Amino acid sequence: MNRINYGLECEKLLEEAAISGKNKLLLHVCCAPCSSSVIEYLEGKMDITLYFYNPNISDREEFYYRLSELQRFVEERPGKKSPIITPNYDPDEFFTMAKGLEELPEGGARCFGCYDLRLRRTAQAAAEGGYDFFTTTLSVSPYKNAEKLNSMGAMIGEEYGVRYLTSDFKKKNGYLRSIELSSVYNLYRQDYCGCVFSQAEAEKRRNGKQN
Question: CA 125, CA 172: separation in Å to the nearest integer?
């Protein structure tokens, strides 16, 4: 079975948007480091609004610290200052979704449910806001399943009547560029996605290195 080149698909959609002038994008962002290279890549090609919707971040202090780092990056970097929309913080939305899936390993059904939760809310906001496209920065991470994100995004986009910008932002050194930009702007790079389950996995990794 031939694998889809999501990077090439993204470039085709960006060219189409440039020709049509329909380039208003609602970009779901998970954190400043992952957003950095994606914003840089999309800048000048799309009219970007950032959507910081992450109820999976279980700790309130962590949530607002990541948000403040995103805000700082947007303000300090050159170029257009993309507006940031932040829906009300409600981690119960994540825990409701994850009920019954608590014991599953990272990268499985619970994570896919989290993808769905965040993509669906972004699509809804994009439809209500009159955006032409929506997508997410999640695919820049080597730990996220780009194929799953794209298939879910396309399906959800059809439900809400907003096109999903197919992408795999880790390609063409996107992930490496995010590391470089994190160093340039001294961004906080967390070692877990935000939920209590990934945090526990991160703690196990740290303890393993110490032993």
Answer: 29
